[in-house]
Design brief:
heterodimer, A: 845 residues, alpha+beta, Alpha-Beta Plaits, five-stranded antiparallel sheet, four-stranded antiparallel sheet, 27 helices, 8% strand, B: 356 residues, mainly alpha, 15 helices, globular
Amino acid sequence: MSSLLRGEEMCLAQLFLQSGSAYDCISELGELGLVEFRDLNPSVTAFQRKHVNEIKKCEEMERILGYLLREVKKADISLPERDVNPVAPLPKHVMAIMEQLQRLEVELGEVTRNKEKLQRNLLELTEYTHMLRITRKFVQRTAEREPLQVQYEEFPFLEKETMMDYSSMQRLGAKLGFISGLIQRVKIEAFERMLWRVCKGYTILSYAEVEEYLENPDTGEPTKCVVFLISYWGDQIGQKVKKICDCYHCHVYPYPSSNEERNDVVEGLRTRIQDLHTVLNRTEDYLRQVLIKASESVYTWVIQVKKMKAIYYILNLCSFDVTNKCLIAEVWCPVNDIPTLRRALEEGSRKSGATVPSFVNRIPTSDTPPTLIKTNKFTSGFQNIVDAYGVGSYREVNPAPFTIITFPFLFAVMFGDLGHGVIMAVFAAWMVLCENNRKLKNTRNEIWNTFFEGRYIILMMGLFSIYTGLIYNDCFSKSLNIFGSGWSVKAMGWTKEQWENNRFLTLDPNVTGVFKGPYPLGIDPIWNLASNRLTFLNSYKMKMSVILGIIHMSFGVILSTYNYLHFRKKYNLYLVFLPELLFLLCLFGYLVFMILYKWLAFSAKDSRHAPSILIHFINMFLMQGDGLQPLYPGQTGLQIFLVVIAVLSVPVLLLGKPVYLYWLHNGSHRLGLYRGYERVRRNSEEELYLMRAHDMEEGSSHSDLSSSGENPTEEFDFADELLHQAIHTIEYCLGCVSNTASYLRLWALSLAHAQLSEVLWAMVMRVGLRMDSTLGVLFLVPVFGLFAVLTVSILLVMEGLSAFLHALRLHWVEFQNKFYGGTGVKFCPFAFSLLPSSFEHDGLL
Amino acid sequence: KEEGKITLTFNVDHGYLEGLVRGMKAGILTSTDYHNLAQCDTLEDMKLHLQSTDYGKLLSSSEEDLTVSLVDSKLRANLVTEFSCLRSNALPPLSTFLDYITYSYMIDNVVMLITGALKQRDVAELLPRCHPLGAFDQMAAVGIARTPTELYSAILVDTPLAPFFQDAVSESNLDEMEAEILRNKLYKAYIESFHSFCKNIGGVTADIMCPVLEFEADRRTFIITVNSFGTELSGADKSALYPSCGKLYPEGLRLLAKAEDHEQVKAVANCYPEYKLIFDDPEPGADFKTLEDRFFEQEVKLNMLAFLQQFHFGVFYSYVKLKEQESRNIVWIAECVTQRQKSKIHNYIPIFPGTH
């Protein structure tokens, strides 16, 4: 408990690691996650450090692993169970892993390259068959058309040529040539245009689309292609046409000169395609086998490489001692865990078989240690709420343990509804029960993760909402009549006419038998029927908010004493804490007293004479109250006394601490003693002695070494101190007023929630309930659906979030600013479990 | 009035991209990064260091051994990825603006292909050397053309470069000299067109871009003049190549066309304070810098100014140019590292000095 309240006690320790066993020792420490390493060579750049080559090797392995993982993903092979947690491999085993990985990479690369080659080949062959099939149609078509005498008016020369046979063209010195191939459909228009421009029309282009989608070998996407056939005259033009084809990335295939040749080629292609298919299948099978074999151990390798890289990274932070035989590391470590640390080092040395053991040595320091607060799955959510405001200073009182209760409670005050609370608690309980379900835990949905991380908070909020719902007697805006109302209508003895003629009737508790006593738990259900229900509840909830707020704030002020006592600043107890508490209690505590007094002192009989507390409270400051009847004898005197005390505590708060510190500083230098953090050092007399000797050498004052400089030192500045205290005083005194008002949000949110759920009931559910026919039952189904959806989305999610935010604010601002500094640094241990893997980041795992 | 409208609605259309490009600009290497890079002993060290910058795993994701040319192509690919992301999200007129940026690379590619074809190089060998930002469909067919007219009417008429051909059409056979002249003519038309485009957009874009483009025009003028010493290019020929949108126009251009040696060029530059600095003799103590480097330095300075204002397109142009300069710097350092020329390693041109 003390560790949850204050955080762990930390110390700076030096680890002397024998160079032979350093790797194993750090591996042990990484598994345990005990210590935070400090960088001992901050001036050395990353690539000049000792183990940079090993890190490079790890990165090389990571690259290969990334490649493997991508291939495994591509092949749609699922990775095996991920619960294995292999230890970091020994440096001598690394080479084996490296070799294995490299072999796999080479093998995989070869197979994939082969496969790609085969696929490309297959694609070419299919393209060729398509081309042959389609160009045959061109030829047939032209053959059919020829008798029809196609007119190319633009090219009279061509027109003549078409009529000639090939030999006559040869005689003219021009050779008819064909180029045929495939081109992507998007490019065909530009292609045609350029052909026309460059060749000035000495070509004929005919093309037709391939019906099927062919895979684009570069991108792997299916694309539509077009088969084209260019007939041209002359070699020069042919050259140009070829160049243009190259430019548009056409796949050009030889054009068969005769029909027989064409048939032969088609036949040959068919058999080759079949052969290719079988080869390709074999290759794919083999590839799959290789990948499955790789996927079995790939996860282990990923973890091992990650750990190894982390270890070398840590080794880079260490420095060598003079003899170069052992590594020195500096770590922050919780004092309680030092024995575990020792054992871990022994274990590491034993594993590596080192003759000289590695050992720990605590060293004194003047640095403020990082803050470590050990949490479990229940408390971590609440600790996160506190840490989001600011990580506590070292050994400061941690608000988290109190937050566990106050946070859900304040939330529930705003969210008070039994029904909504039950839904929320059930949802949270489901998450808690299924918390080991990997699917829920490892999802990458951020919104879901937020809810899942806070499942215990939600559970507590739900349970507390059930409680406050019972107190408010609200269940989906309706009241539960469990114990029977304490009011009796019968006892009023109303006649039939009175019933019929009045829309509203007043129950008078003063008539005997009407009010039989308070309802055992919470608000009496009869108020649900009353027209003045809102007025009644408002008054009740408002006063309750003020009472809760003052209690909450006073508690915060009282918690500050723990800090003062722990940090040996006793004077703060009298000069800060006492005036603060007096100020708060004399003014607002008295307000609470008046509220309670009024509740207790006035019953139904004399409720007509009940005074207004507000007027009394205002009169208290004006120090007059002659016109009013006093609440109790001696009220005026007490009130004047309280106001005087409150007013007097302001100058004490303002001047007390600075003046005392001034006196302390000017009056006695001798008073400065070892305080605060040197408790760590006290454990070893020898070290203390060393410290002192060190001090003498340095010639500095003792207080220089104490952790946060709580003792006034030479650089004590009275004006500075006074200014700070003045700011604090103003902030506190004004804050008391504004913070108390701020707690009224409890009332406002609670009112809003209750009203909203009532509106929802009246506008949706009641509409369905009003229909009193068989149809009404059917109608009720969609109406209830709507009601349920709106309840969950608006009342639970939206209202819940808003109440959560307000509760958060009440804790961060109103509560924590009374005592919590939150200026610490979080302890981040070197633990393998906390290391992110780049593969997770890339979504490969 | 138009200016106000553009500023008012700028974020609706281009706010996202401006934010994006400013974010990417924050990843430009700082002087500390350069300092660390300059300490590297091998390319592997550089890779390790670049990992901690915005380049991340860019260099480490390949299996091949690291070479300077690999570094260069990776950096270029990186820039192209970023640029195409911007381009594919851009709305007009920003999309046109971004297209204009690519035209200069297209011109370089065309000329490179022509000279390659003249040297009987294979197109397949030339294409990978083209800058991917200036890639276009008809690129591979450029080598077919024998004259600029043919080049224009057969191949480039469909490309965005077509409008720049107005003055460049000629029937003379393409040789190396002609290709170089063609490049400069195209570039002149391009930069003038870009200049007037930015002017038409108006507002801050014009305020930022016009000085940058004017500087670019003048730089070309100077370079053409300096390179023309010792060739048979006449004054009239030269002045046909000078872009007329720069600060040198018109008097400076006239004088430069007549210039015969370096001293005369320097005399012209002396009349313009911003160019006087560039042509000044280096101080005795300082490192010697080439004219090109001095121009680059000045360009970086101008481009950095673009980021001081909001609601304009200049940031996109400047980002591309700065990133290009950064690639040049990294490649320079990598070159020095591999050739063990530690003494010259500091001759890169720092971008955003003083930012950390």
